[in-house]
Structure formats: C-alpha cells, structure tokens
Design brief:
Layout: E1 2-11, E2 14-24, E3 35-39, H1 44-47, H2 49-59, E4 68-74, H3 86-96, E5 108-110, E6 113-114, E7 120-121, H4 126-133, E8 141-145, H5 149-156, E9 161-165, H6 168-177, H7 187-192, H8 208-220, E10 224-227, H9 234-239, H10 250-262, E11 278-279, H11 287-291, E12 292-293, E13 298-299, H12 301-304, E14 309-312, H13 320-324, H14 327-332, E15 334-339, E16 342-347, E17 351-356, H15 374-381, H16 386-390, E18 394-397, H17 403-408, H18 415-432, H19 446-452, H20 457-470, H21 474-490, H22 498-505
Parallel strand pairs: 3-4, 5-8, 8-9, 10-17, 10-18, 11-14, 14-17
Antiparallel strand pairs: 1-2, 2-4, 6-7, 12-13, 15-16
Helix pairs in contact: 2-3, 4-5, 8-18, 8-21, 20-22, 21-22
Length: about 500
C-alpha cells in the first residue's frame, strides 16, 4: 500500500520541498521481516531513521509494517540530510498500514525528528522550511515540533496553519480527527520587544573621536578600524555599535533569522532576531568558520553577522588567509562557497568593526613604556594587506585617557540619542537612493558617487592634496567621498562642504 506526505530539506540556507513516498509491500524478498529501505540520496542521518522510526512506532502503541517497506524521498537527485524526515516517514508508514487515513496526508506537511520513545525533537531550519512549504500548492497544515512552533508560525503568517505536536501519537491523532489548535504568533509583538540588557553608549567615558567615528559608521554602513593600547575601551565601544544602528525592517528580520534558524540558533522564546546581530569570533577561527563551508556548506560568522556587526578584535592576530577571504563579502555583500557537491551563496552584508594594538607590545608610545623598534612596528602593521585596509572606510585612534580625563569625563550620550541621529541620516539616504537597490552610502556605486557626491572647488583641492600626500588608491578615494556624504547627511543632508571632506580624510591611516 502506497502513502505520500510532504516534507522539506535545507541546503545552505534555502529550503526545498520533498515528497515522502512509503510503499509497504507485505512481502520480504530476500530480507528479514519488517525491513526498511530508504532511497532518494539520503545521508547517514536519514538512513539511520529506519531504526528510530521503527522504535518510535512500537513505543507509541502502533504495529509497524510487516514484510518489506520502501521509503522514497523525491526528487531523487536532491541531497537529503538530518533527522527532520523521521515524523513524515513514520506517518507514511502508519498510513501504509491503515492506522491513519492516507487521503488526509495529501494536505499536510510535516517536519520533526523522533526519539526512540516517540517524542518529537526540534529540527534546524524550521523557519525557511515553513516559509517554503507555505508556498506549496495543496498544503493546508504543517505539523512541527513544539520547540519550532513559534518560528514556523511567524514565517508562514496566515498562509499556512501551524500545529505543534510533542509525540508521534499526537501527530497520528491529528491526522485521524484533528483536536489540536493551530499555533498563533503575533509578529508585531516580537519585533517591538526590546532587550533592556543591551550595553549603552552612556557607559563609555571620553573617547569623543572614536564615538564620532562609530556614529558615522552606523549612519552610512561604513566599516571601521580602531587602534589603541589595551584597556582604552575598543571592545567596549565595538559592543555598543549595534545599539545605535536603525531597527531592522521586517525583511531584514526574516532574512537574518533564517540564517540563525538553519544553524539551530533560534529556539523557544527567541523565534526571531528582533535586534541587529553582533558577532565576535576569536582570532584563532579558520577561514571555513568565518565565511562558511564544509562538506555540506553551512553559513559562517560573516553570514551570522548579516544586517549587523562583525567585530574582529586583535585584527593582526588573525591568519592572513582568513582576513583575505573577507575582501569579496566586504565588496559585494555575499559569499559563494563552492564544493564538489555543489555551491551555495550566503548573504553577508555587515559592518566590519575591527580593533588592533598600535604595536606588538600594545603600548604604542615611549611614554607608555613601549619598547618596540620601528621595524617591529612596521612588520606588525604589514600583517594587514593594503586591499583589506582600502575596504575599511574609517580608521581611528583610540588613545589612552589620563587619570584626570578619566575621573572628570562626564557620562556620554545614550545609544538612543545617537540612534535618533543615525535614523535621520539613514532616512535621507533611503529617500535619495529610492529604487536603486541600495539603502546606505557605503554601498554607493561609481555612477551614484558622481551624482550625489559633487564637491566644491575647495573640497576637490583637499582631496587632490590627500591623494598626492598619502598615495591613496582609487578605492580609498571613493571611500573618502562616501564618508563625507554620510557626514553631510548627519549634518542635515545638504551639499558636501569642505569641512566634511577634511573630517573624512582624517579617518584614513596612511602609516599602516
């Protein structure tokens, strides 16, 4: 007897529908009674579902099919991985034996991993799977593990009814006679919720120049590098950058949450990311850990930081090969990972915030006890390639505060106050760039630079002098124009004035 039910799998960060076909023949040609064969390009975890499903069916009080059972996961040329097909296979086997009506499976989609006692465990990627299944013609109901109900319901909206189930018996009961209420999730409430534990800029003492640089970075989406001795507050400042970024739009929220869902980083109580992500990997990370990859490609840290901040502390301590792979995503906003089994493209549009010491010992100045020789300092700075530094718009020094400055420094502005100015500047950019596919100054193309970054004679002369003195590359020239445009937007959005160009030039560090 043949039974069919709809499910889905995730490849990269995208979900693909899969039809589970179960054929219980009632005979056992050349094999033991009750044998199960799974075909359709399954990985090891999917093949092992035979034993999990058989035990879960028996523990739930049902009789498993006798004879030989074939499970086909279609389409056959699509890779299937993970334990998310367990529930679909089990319900298909119950339908094939007549325990549940086969015709009721036609409008139902299921995901879930089974424990040996019939308990349903959560799966990764419930958000993109639910969003994809909501587009499938004929699917009216989606059965998901209870832990995945919130993210699935938020992803489907009103397109698909989501029903949480905790055991195989509950899922079978739903197929028989319903009895489970659909899960309702209020998207507005999740997006409006704020985390009062977030760090705040008012906690930072002094460092007016660094605070100004981070405000410009947030207003225009620019990358920033802070250099200074240990203990000057570089990490403290970086941790607060995400708090002054504009709130995420609904599209950004769903896109960012989808990446975290694929890696299992969403759960009960946190079905969506309602604030900008902040990722701070250690300097020992590999290039695969940073950009993503593996035999079956998975997103890396730069994709987890999508629409947020990627903080790289002790930048010169990262391996050169790891830093160089950042060049493409910094320029394009995505990363393509190619492997023998195929290629995946992951979004990676983030603000890079990096920090470094001024020299190997970290003190940076003779009066602070620095003993590094000039050659040692040059060798230390040379760990960062010119092409990478060209892609960092703002390069600012975070100096050591004196005892008097530290004790007398008043509390700075709050993140909320700074964020208001950032939002106003971003709104100007969005109005100016409407319909062009970009929404911030850091993403301006060459044509848009010519259109929106026209200079006065004085500003053009300042740039010519900077190019001649600092030997700036064409990319560095463009970056200065983009920063100047953001500074002008923070000042009200008028023309780029000479002082805006002068300030933007001061955020370059030619000595690196």
């Amino acid at each position: 007897m043949l039974a069919k039910i709809c499910s889905a799998t995730v490849i990269g960060i995208d979900a693909y529908p899969v039809e589970i076909e179960v054929n219980a023949t009632g005979t056992s040609p050349g094999g033991p009674d009750g044998a199960i064969s799974i075909v359709g390009l399954p990985d090891a975890a999917v093949k092992e579902s035979r034993d999990r499903v058989r035990s879960a069916i028996a523990s739930s009080g049902f009789l498993p099919p006798r004879g030989f059972t074939v499970v086909n996961l279609a389409p056959a040329d699509l890779r299937k991985e993970g334990g998310g097909f367990d529930l679909g296979i089990a319900l298909g086997m119950l339908a094939a034996t007549g325990a549940v009506p086969r015709e009721k499976l036609n409008s139902v989609a299921v995901i879930g991993e089974l424990a040996l006692d019939g308990t349903i465990r959560p799966v990764r990627g419930a958000l993109p799977i639910a969003a994809r299944l909501a587009e499938e013609h004929g699917v009216e109901s989606l059965l998901v593990p209870m832990e995945n109900a919130e993210e699935a319901a938020l992803a489907t909206g009103e397109k698909l009814a989501v029903f949480p189930v905790g055991t195989l018996r509950e899922a079978a009961g739903f197929i028989l006679d319903g009895g489970i209420l659909p899960f309702r999730a209020g998207l507005t409430e999740y997006l409006a919720a704020e985390d009062c534990r977030e760090p705040d800029f008012s906690e930072v003492k002094g460092q007016k120049l660094a605070r100004r640089a981070l405000e410009i970075a947030a207003a225009g989406g620019h990358n920033v590098l802070m250099s200074g001795p240990p203990g000057t507050g570089k990490s403290m400042l970086a941790m607060r950058l995400a708090t002054i970024l504009p709130p995420m739009t609904l599209e950004e929220t769903l896109e960012t949450s989808r990446i975290h869902s694929v890696l299992g980083l969403l759960g009960t109580g946190r079905p969506l990311l309602n604030r900008r992500p902040f990722r701070a990997p250690h300097h020992t990370i590999s290039d695969v850990g940073l950009i993503g990859g593996g035999r079956d490609p998975r997103p890396g840290e730069i994709s987890l930081a999508h629409n947020g901040v990627l903080f790289l502390d002790e930048l010169p301590e990262f391996k050169r090969s790891v830093l160089e792979v950042l060049r493409q995503p910094l320029e394009n906003g995505f990363i393509t990972v190619s492997r023998a089994a195929g290629s995946c493209t992951f979004p990676a549009r983030f603000i890079l915030c990096a920090a470094m010491n001024p020299c190997p010992c970290g003190r940076g100045a003779y009066e602070l006890g620095c003993t590094c020789k000039p050659e040692e300092k040059r060798r230390y700075n040379k760990k960062l390639s010119g092409p990478l530094l060209d892609r960092i718009d703002l390069q600012v020094e975070v100096r050591q505060l004196s005892e008097q400055e530290l004790l007398a420094a008043p509390d700075g502005e709050s993140s909320a106050t700074i964020r208001e100015r950032v939002i106003r500047a971003r709104r100007l950019q969005q109005q100016r760039l409407a319909g062009r596919g970009v929404n911030c100054n850091a993403r301006l193309s060459s044509r848009e630079l010519q259109e929106f970054c026209r200079l006065s004679p004085g500003g053009a002369q300042l740039l010519r002098q900077a190019i001649a003195r600092f030997k700036l590359s064409p990319r560095a020239y463009d970056r200065i124009l983009k920063v100047a445009r953001t500074i002008a937007d923070l000042a009200g959005g008028g023309e780029i004035r000479d002082e805006h160009i002068f300030e933007a030039i001061n955020y370059r560090r030619p000595e690196l």
